Amino acid sequence: MRLNQQVPSLPIIVHHPYLSLWLPAKELYGACIEHWCGLKRSINGHILIDGKVYRFMGVEGGKDVIEQVGIDLTPTSTSFYFENEQISLEVKFTSPLLLDDLELLSRPCTYVCFKVTSKDDQVHDIQIVIDMNQSHVQNGESLKPVIGETLTYETYQLGFLGQVQQNLLAHSGDGVGIDWGYLYMVLPNQEDVKGKIDSTQHLNEVRSKILNCEAKEDQGAGIVLHIDLGKVREEKEVYSLIAYDEMLAIMYFNRALPPYWARDGKTIIDVIAKALDEKEEVLSRCKTFDKQLEDETDKLLGESYRVICTLAYRQTIAAHQLIEDEKGEVIFLSKECCSNGCIGTVDVSYPSSPLFLLYNTELLKGMLRPIFRFEALPIWPFEYAPHDVGRYPYATGQVYGLSEEGKYIQGKERIIEGGIGIYPNYTHYPKGKMIYDEHYQMPIEECGNMLILCAAICKCEGHTEFIKPYIEVLEKWANYLVNYGIDPGEQLCTDDFAGHLAHNVNLSLKAIIGVASFGVLLDEAGEKKKANQYKVVAKQMSKEWTDRARGKKHTPLSFTEPESWSLKYNLVWDELLELNLFDEKVKEQEVEWYMSKMGPYGVPLDSRVTYTKSDWSVWCATLTTDRSKAQKMVDAVARFLDETPDKVPFTDWYETVTGVHHLFRNRTVQGGLFLPLLRKYISKKTYE
What we know:
globular, alpha+beta, 15 helices
């Protein structure tokens, strides 16, 4: 897809929360490439045309640039096009995150492909130089010693970098990078192409020798890839591979586990060799998938919807890490980016779920299994669902809403929540040790989320095998919603940045749908009599909700404030799960009200604020069958991407008037933008 509008930041190399590199500019040479949280991750690229040096990537090195003339953005690739009077150059980054292939999905290897063609019909001597400095193996401003090496194998050569002294899984936190493991740059043997990789302790010296240019500042250690394409007239293509071996990925319930690709003893060398062998097949599969998704989104809601789904795809997936537990089950753990770095957060899985319901429900199951496992431990004292299972990369017990006692180690040393410390292993704590402050829990929110997601999985799969081990705890959570959900007390919901709220109408809506979801699960499991009981209760609750929430032209934010209003995004599941709890007029009335409150970049989240959430905005576009209304909501999100002044990975929280973003970036919740497409597959309704 040729990108005809701007986007705030472009995905370059994206695989998991520690390997997620973005370009905060529209030109590849316009800014230093960054980790999603803003840490600089220097990658510089130069092309030598008949000995003259031109920079096409990064901000270090040659002063002259070869002009960038276009960008292609697809779900799995980002391509940049350059040209001058002599040659044209294409540079393409492909991170093959195909959700139906877990081996490939987990493989931390990005293909970097170059195509060069003469424009003036003359033969030109072409060389390409790529360098990456030691920032890729350091966290922030760390100056720990880094070592590199170059190795030659039968079919390729590689260079790698890593710290001399490493502490695997050394820290947890939010806006932090990785400082363990090894960065790899790989050059396969290719016909009529000469190449060399240098892993050096003095990047400036090697770069200056090749490019004959002075460096602005000391880059320390690095890797330099030097490709000599020789004489070029007709199109010539070469490629390299950039990979990262983090060695250990997650501390999962006190077991240090490797990433999924290494679960059976494979090494990064094994994975690199396979990535090279399968290059043509993998790139072909990516091309096929990209076209399918682009065509479907364009046909459904036009170019705006195609753009936002294309940009959200890699970001959503790469904010997770895939592992396998000791039972051989898939575990797919999110990082709650730009919040508190929680791992496996339920109310992050909830909005992100449409993407995974579309393409692989096993990954959504992998998000829920850790929650069920933690809930069963003695330390969790409540009758409702947890919020998370730790702070990334430590899945060692919920850290959200800790009491003052819970924030201390042995009552002495306070944990700095905003830092990079490691919390205690709460999974070991005995029953009766109260470490959580109930005021900061989300009882209705998380119970509803878990029940709805389980129902959605079973609906997509057509059976209830997944929920069988968890039926008792699901019933406990459903009963909690029956008892407390119709008019929630003061508590947080997933939009916790907006603060506590009592009598939350949207939260009540989630409770009702959660109860009905459990009825659906029981029905599918063959427990017809008990299922009917929960369905009847849900219907009674929905009638009470409708009677209490009905306003003049909209439903309120709070039952006690009839003139207030909010986006009722939870209502989407009434149709998707075929619950039939609410009149269609309620949904259409809501959408009509949203149209009257539309700002330049969308509809505010509720009557208290001017900011919105992009995921909830697009969810509300599925409350109507009117294509023009849905299109307006989707167009507003695309307009935000085009005009926002902030150069960060796709945020979900921003101002509807100014387009300025609030804190969040690189969030998994953007998987929710795929809800209209999910609706197409599991609902009989469509846009008219």
